[in-house]
Amino acid sequence: MGPDVPLLNDYKQDFFLKRFPQTVLGGPRFKLGYCAPPYIYVNQIILFLIPWVLGGIGTLLYQLDILKDYYTAALSGGLMLFVAFVIQMTSLYARKKSVTIERMLSPDTLTDEDEYESSGCADAETIKFIIPGKKYILNTVFHSVLAGVICGLGTWYLLPNRITLLYSNIGGTVMIFIFGWVTVCIGEYSLIINTATETATFQTLDTYEFTALMRPLYIIFFIAVDLAHRFTVNLPALEHINQILHILFVFLPILWALGTLPPPDALFLWGMEQVLEFGLGGSPMSSHLRLLVMFLVSAGTAIASYFIPSTVGVVLFMTGFGFLLSLNLSVIGHSVLEGKIRRKTPAKSKTLRNCSKKQFGWRECLFYFILLVLALIETSLLHIFAAFSAFSKTSPQTIISYILMVLFIVTWLLREIQSVYVFGIFRNPFYTKDTRTVTVFLEKQTRLVKVGVVRRILLTLVSPFAMIAFLSLDSSLQVLHSVSVCIGFTRAFRMVWQNTENALLEMVVVSLMQLFIFSKDLWWNRSLDTGIRLLLVGIIRDRLLQLITKLQFAVAVLLTSWTEKKQRRKSTTTLITLNIVFFPVVIFFIVLSTLLSSPLLPLFTLPVFLVGFPRPVQSWPGPVGATACICPDTVYYEQMVPSLSAALGSAMAAGSLGLLLPGSHYLCRFQDRLIWILVLERGYTYCCISIKGLELQETSCHTVEARRVDDVFEAAFEQEEYAKALPLNEHFGNILTPCTVLPVRLYSDGRSVLSGIIDSNENLQEFKDDFIKVLVWMLVRYCYKRTKPPKKLDGSENNGVPPLIRQPEWNNSPYPQVPSDTDSLNLETLDEWSDNDVFDDESTTKKDKKENGKLKVLPSTSLPIPGSVESRSVDGNSAETISEDKLYKAVALGLPAVDRGKQREMTYFPLLEFSCSHSQLLNIPEEWRSGCLPKSRINEIKQLFPEDWYQFVLSQLESFHPKENLSNILEEIAKDEVLKDLYIHAVMSCYFSFFGIDNMVPSPSHIFRAYSSGIPWSLGLDWLTEKPELFQQALKAFRECTLEEYLLFRNC
């Protein structure tokens, strides 16, 4: 943002000045985008003050003792009902009278939204502008009746004599009377005239006009408390509440404008969620329908437990339903329904199997059934046969509490060592330090995976049964159960399975308090049973965790408003000073936000904190996974979700993501992508999450935010100095705390620009050298794996005689020899190139493809004599081996052509021996030994070949064929000059086939074409394409070298 950038530009300022007064006053538009006639404002003022005038008539008659208070309310309500119907009928008549005219859409909708054309004070267009009317006739009647009720009850609520009885202060009475009627007028105007744009919005579309009911419903609530105080026995607590609410009634317009009060639907869902979670032991649900159904079932369970006459029956009922309700019943029901449909209509089974997100089979059913039976047996046996006594240092319940403490400490420590930071401060010494290579990361992560398995067993199998034993031994269950016992223990038995970690913490806290507080006179022991204690500890735990988080957030916003240049403004010093001076007020807002479990909102990202309205964990009304618009971005994230969900499931089970609570937010980073994950629901062995992705076309602010996220992640995962000691978290206190690295298989969307990198002369020259090294590595590994090792490595079958081999056929002609007349690259001979085999050790060719082109050197005596030609008879079916007399000749093919009548010139080479008998393990195929290079380039070739790298590659073969004496064997192989010459010939032939015989520095376009299999034609390319296996290995090495070069500079 910066200090010189205005908080709101001119357009936003104008829009804010038009909208905010409209929101505060409930709908009147007193500031328009053009010069409107005066009667527009006069009409709106008259309509705004009508409820006050009608209520004032009734109030005057009451003050003059002409009418009683209830008759006064009836008179004012009846008058308001009549006026409301007149207003609605007038609006309906104006809409029918006006003619619909199509007009061209204006490009600036927000500027012209308040413009209209009128010709008089009461014409149809003016009435439509001021009173838009209702969509449905039912709402026209209902809202008019409700307006009359509010006006009548509001008159009764704000009678001066009644207010004087509450406060005994004339000044206070006058202030409450005046501003209270302003509140009533605002509610009436939004109900029957024009609904204001609310700051607190939950539904994206107001299809059924529920927004108009928001303010009137709050007015009715305040009046209902006053009526309860009037017609009930005089209760001091209710009187104090009524006094406080009368004062708050005056400030309702401010609370509406700031968005502190929630819409009715959000308030209803939030209330059900809080009762379900803290009163009934459930979890926030992933959809509103699931929340309503689960709330009704859970409440019915608690009520039914009260009417069970047997204590054993109550315990078994609570245990069984606590376990069943903690499962993902929707998935179980879907699987059962799918099984029935599959049996009836087998044709639909395949479609249903593809549509179902998770299969629930008989193994899961058997596992859950066994757990349920064991839990019921344990509960019944302990409740019947165990000796019950008060909680003491030697009681059985105390012994179980010690076991729970040990389990809590062990599981807590095992969870902490799963993430990269311990307690969010120290880097975990057990966490993998190298997280940039997937294979290395997975190998070193094996230890933590085993620890995660142990933790999962303790949480899912051991801890629940230990907590059931603790609850079953409680003495509160032996007496006749009360309402508090049914509510508290129904919640406790369900929390054991629904949220095992929190239940374990709560029981440990209650046990510690009972161990240190033995006084029976204390209210904790005298008035509360164990179930209610666990309920109170659960509420305190949740609100305390929220308080710590929101304090951390407030401090972070306050500090970064000064330390971050982008957030520093001219008013920053003043705002920080005001926060320090009014520190109690800031703390009050934070505590209020915590108690309501509502968001803490920094106004315009400034350190000015407001309290948002309470809402359920699923803070949007639509279904999970729904998107506002379908676009190419959606396709990218849809293909990523399955693999990401699987990786998240493993991390959650291991505890790598910390304490997993509904409402927890996680941020994932992959290349340029940011992914927002919200935990919606959690139960026994399952978790429901929402995954949302950032749009692919980022803005400048997204880039800045992503850069800061990258800094935090790099400091945690990509710093080598962490291997030296236990460093601290540089970003401790930040809202974003790194958790772990997840290996996920997905598509890349990297779009880095390589200008200045791929066209650099230095990089291009280094690319050629790197290509030689990569090709050496791949050919050595390829030849080693394709050649079967001999049965005996001591060379006994050869009787000590090293094998014979022909020398490579170096050409005497200055022209390279061409074995075929092919003038283009035939891509049909290549295997399919896929993303999966870019970095594989071997190509994904078919086993039987081109098998005849390979010559394997085997120790068997049935192999033909070196130099012989194996041929098959054309006429017969038998094959015979023909030994040529001219054993050592090599046919010289190429230019110039030889006449048919003349005998072809033959070139003879002496046989050479391997100096090491084991070199045949790395022998290259015989068809690769034909030459394509002139003799004049032989010396140059040997100078370019990296001999040190060649010896290093040979030394790495130990990982593929470990033997006790392998080091000596590899050293002898490395000294074999004949084998080295063979690799020099094969590697450099591929090198000159790709880059040409002139050995020039390649251009960027050359590299791109070669990477895309569009290698420029040359004589060497024809030679190379005749050997598909060699060509595929060379092309794979070229592509791998290109990708490594790209990724290296991209990460730099």
From TrEMBL:
<dbReference type="InterPro" id="IPR039797">
    <property type="entry name" value="Pecanex"/>
</dbReference>
<feature type="compositionally biased region" description="Polar residues">
    <location>
        <begin position="809"/>
        <end position="824"/>
    </location>
</feature>
<comment type="similarity">
    <text>Belongs to the pecanex family.</text>
</comment>
<feature type="transmembrane region" description="Helical">
    <location>
        <begin position="291"/>
        <end position="308"/>
    </location>
</feature>
<keyword id="KW-0472">Membrane</keyword>
<feature type="transmembrane region" description="Helical">
    <location>
        <begin position="212"/>
        <end position="232"/>
    </location>
</feature>
<feature type="transmembrane region" description="Helical">
    <location>
        <begin position="39"/>
        <end position="64"/>
    </location>
</feature>
<keyword id="KW-1133">Transmembrane helix</keyword>
<protein>
    <recommendedName>
        <fullName>Pecanex-like protein</fullName>
    </recommendedName>
</protein>
<feature type="transmembrane region" description="Helical">
    <location>
        <begin position="366"/>
        <end position="391"/>
    </location>
</feature>
<feature type="transmembrane region" description="Helical">
    <location>
        <begin position="314"/>
        <end position="337"/>
    </location>
</feature>
<keyword id="KW-0812">Transmembrane</keyword>
<feature type="transmembrane region" description="Helical">
    <location>
        <begin position="397"/>
        <end position="414"/>
    </location>
</feature>
<feature type="transmembrane region" description="Helical">
    <location>
        <begin position="165"/>
        <end position="191"/>
    </location>
</feature>
<feature type="transmembrane region" description="Helical">
    <location>
        <begin position="70"/>
        <end position="94"/>
    </location>
</feature>
<dbReference type="GO" id="GO:0016020">
    <property type="term" value="C:membrane"/>
</dbReference>
<feature type="transmembrane region" description="Helical">
    <location>
        <begin position="136"/>
        <end position="159"/>
    </location>
</feature>
<feature type="region of interest" description="Disordered">
    <location>
        <begin position="791"/>
        <end position="824"/>
    </location>
</feature>
<feature type="transmembrane region" description="Helical">
    <location>
        <begin position="244"/>
        <end position="270"/>
    </location>
</feature>
<feature type="transmembrane region" description="Helical">
    <location>
        <begin position="575"/>
        <end position="596"/>
    </location>
</feature>
